[in-house]
Amino acid sequence: MPAAAALSRPRHLDRAAAAPTFTIGELAREFGVTTRAIRFYEDCGLLDPERAGRNRVYSTRDRTRLRLTLRGKRLGLKLAEVKELVDMYESRRDTGPQLRRFLGVLARHRTQLEQRLGDLQTTLAEVLAQEAEARRLLKARTAA
What we know:
Blueprint: H1 3-8, H2 24-31, H3 35-43, E1 50-52, E2 55-57, H4 60-74, H5 79-90, H6 95-143
Antiparallel strand pairs: 1-2
């Protein structure tokens, strides 16, 4: 293959490469997020792509970190919490303290969600009561 063709070929398609790599667009499409969001996660220190000129080249490590970041967001965790947890899992230390920390974060988050759920249930009950009262009043007016 001519040298110019090898340079223009995306690295993730190079069979000789040790590990697959991804472009920002590929990750955005795969995970259903914008490229801007991925750059934001990079600015937060959650992702650390290499550079090929002006292009970002994401590794399987970055892809995994993005997947874990999005999972943490779906759970409602703050990005700082996600970063702390993801960074802990990359260390070679004993996983016991990491799992205890994760359980603590999840327990706090669960407590917050249960409180919000209780608040929503109270609000929903009030809305239902107001709807019933409005229907009763409307029925009384149309019957008269």
